Amino acid sequence: MNYKYYTSNNNGQDDYGLKYINEQGYGLICKDYKLEFPPQHQDTQPGMEYLMTPRPIFNNPYYRGSGKLMNKVAIITGGDSGIGRAVAVGFVKEGATVVIAYYNEHKDAEETKDFIERLGGTCLLLAGDIKDTSFCDKIVDETMKEFGKIDILVNNSAVQYQQKSLLDITDEQFDLTMKTNIYSMFYLTKRALKHMLPGASIINVTSITTFKGEPELIDYVTSKGAIVGFTRSLATNLAEKNIRVNAVSPRCILDAITTSMLGS
Q: What is the secondary structure of 121-159 as a DSSP string?
């Protein structure tokens, strides 16, 4: 079987991660070919997706939406790249308008916005520090100003720093991890909730490490465990208002988010 390697489409634009297509037009699963990744490292967080080789795959070009999120407005933190970018693209394919809050990954954010607009969608970019309550105010205020409502909130932003021992985790690192991963979720959810009507949805991204542990990510796992507790308590608190609150642990995250939005 012959395979083609694509780096750009007919217009010379980046294919955003679509690498291998066979003669029948179907994507290959990873076990069908050997993956080789060159050594690479970035010294800052958040990292820049545009510097990665190869580029992460975030879009299934054969998926066609069916209007499940038509006319919905979704806020997605960390929606510029990685899981957040995949979620943003998936939502737009289902008809949603997206507001992407990100830190300083401007090139990644502009790429995501460009891709969404090429799909025919609408994307508002807001740059700032999610740990700052004033930025959380701005996210909500700008969303309401531009679109007049908030139907979906995806709390996705997070950081992690590997350390061999608990003794290597400084007080400053622990504080930074908790404020980025869980405090910000509280800040933004509290502000967005004032504008969310029955049928709205809050989706919090936790991690599989919460349930199995990770010896070199103690503070990260602690924050992700807190997200599970926050989600369970908030879900029961908002049930009578018919506002769904779910947590997803990345693996098949986009499928899980779509399922939670549909309430199935």
A: --EEEEES-TTSHHHHHHHHHHHHHHHS---EEEE----
Show which residues are catalytic. 220
Taking the CB of residue 104, how many other CB atoms lie within 10 A of it? 14
Alpha-carbon torsion, ordered 36, 40, 45, 49, to 10 deg: -50
Q: What is the dihedral of CA 128, 247, 91, 244, to 10 degrees?
A: -110
pTM of the model as a whole: 0.80
CB 203 within 8 A of CB 253: no
Q: Using the 8-state DSSP alphabet, how is residue 218 labeled?
A: H
**How far from the centroid of its chain's Cα atoms is residue 35's Cα?**
24
User: Which is nearest to 231 in space by CA: 221, 245, 250?
Assistant: 245
Q: Helix H segments across the chain?
A: 82-93, 106-118, 133-147, 171-178, 184-193, 209-212, 218-238, 253-262
Cα–Cα dist 158/58, whole Å: 18
DSSP 3-state of 30: helix
Share of the chain above pLDDT 70, in %: 80
Reported as a pLDDT band with limits 50, 70 and 90, residue 17 is: very low
Task: Return all residues near 171 (Cβ < 8 A) that are at least 6 apart.
Answer: none
Q: Looking at residue 34, what is its pLDDT?
A: 58
pLDDT in tens, 141-153: 999 999 999 999 9
Mean pLDDT of the 29-51 span: 68
Domains, the chain, with CATH or none: 73-262 (3.40.50.720)
